Amino acid sequence: MTLGQMLEDVTMSLSEKSSERKLRISAPGENRLLVTIAICFVILHILAATILTSARQSDAGAAPEPPGLSSGD
Questions:
Q1: H-helix segments, 3-70
Q2: Within a 10 A sphere around the Cβ of 2, how many other Cβ atoms?
Q3: CA 1/CA 66 separation, integer angstroms
Q4: Would you tell me how many other CB atoms lie within 10 Å of the CB of residue 19?
């Protein structure tokens, strides 16, 4: 193996390591973004369920049947 080939191998391995480091640095940022989106998604669905549940409860008690129109007569 000549000196030139050894330098090429070292240069290639250094450039590969630097690209791996860049990938490792960018991955936590992407994971943080995905976690943030997932948390917002869950919170949005909890709020929607709460609003829909309270709307159904208020609809059930809002309009009682008038006494003259009951089917028991």
A1: 3-62
A2: 7
A3: 99
A4: 10
Rg (CA), the chain: 32
Give the pLDDT band (50/70/90) at residue 65: low
Q: How many CA atoms lie within 13 Å of 45's alpha carbon, on the beta-carbon side?
A: 5
Length of the chain counted residue by residue:
73
Sign of the Cα pseudo-torsion (51, 57, 58, 63, in order):
positive
Coil vs helix vs strand at 4 = helix
- Side chain identity at residue 7, one-letter code: L
Q: Cα-Cα-Cα-Cα dihedral of 31, 35, 36, 37, to 10°?
A: 100
User: What predicted TM-score, i.e. pTM, was given to this entire model?
Assistant: 0.44
Which pLDDT does position 38 carry in this prediction?
97
